[in-house]
Design a protein that fits this description.
Layout lengths: L1 H57 L6 H16 L5 H22 L3 H4 L2 H36 L3 H7 L13 H4 L19
Helix pairs in contact: 1-2, 1-5, 2-3
Amino acid sequence: MVIAIVLIAIVFILILIGVGMYNGLVGARNQVKNAWAQIDVQLKRRHDLIPNLVETVKGYMEHERGTLEAVTNARNIAQSLGNAGVADRAKAEGELSGALSRLLAVAENYPTLKANENFLALQEELSSTENKISFSRQFYNDTVLKYNNMIQMFPTNIIAGMGNFQVSEFFEVKAAEERDVPKVSFPTAKTGSSPDNK
């Protein structure tokens, strides 16, 4: 009788441990989904800013049609991959970052554009959004690391295998040019008005 009670207690404890590990895995998987949703919000914000940025600079940069088209095309591709995997989205967003970097570098050659209030406001919003994307990406990757460790480490790997939990992808930027954050800082036009501003 005592042996039966001990065995039942052991089985009950093992079941509780298994349920706890399963719930921990579900919670970690949901944290990964939430972290990705935060990146997605910031990427959408960036996608929404780009048409306004292109429209603002279009009048000033008449001879830079290829640069403007590259940004627009990269934005459209990135936006169309809304349901794609993390690796495909990361690649498309990296290409968009590169196109934005080139656009903003070319904008350096247009003093009247750099003094334009709409451009300055968009530049500031884009810079803020890029920072938020960077922080969200870091949080997402940290969350994925924790989740993947749970899936691959003993003893939770047993529960993960039984529950069909899959390893999540990191949001990685692989190409060297994609690693560069778009440079959105210009000399401040508010400190001294440019003669082109009139």
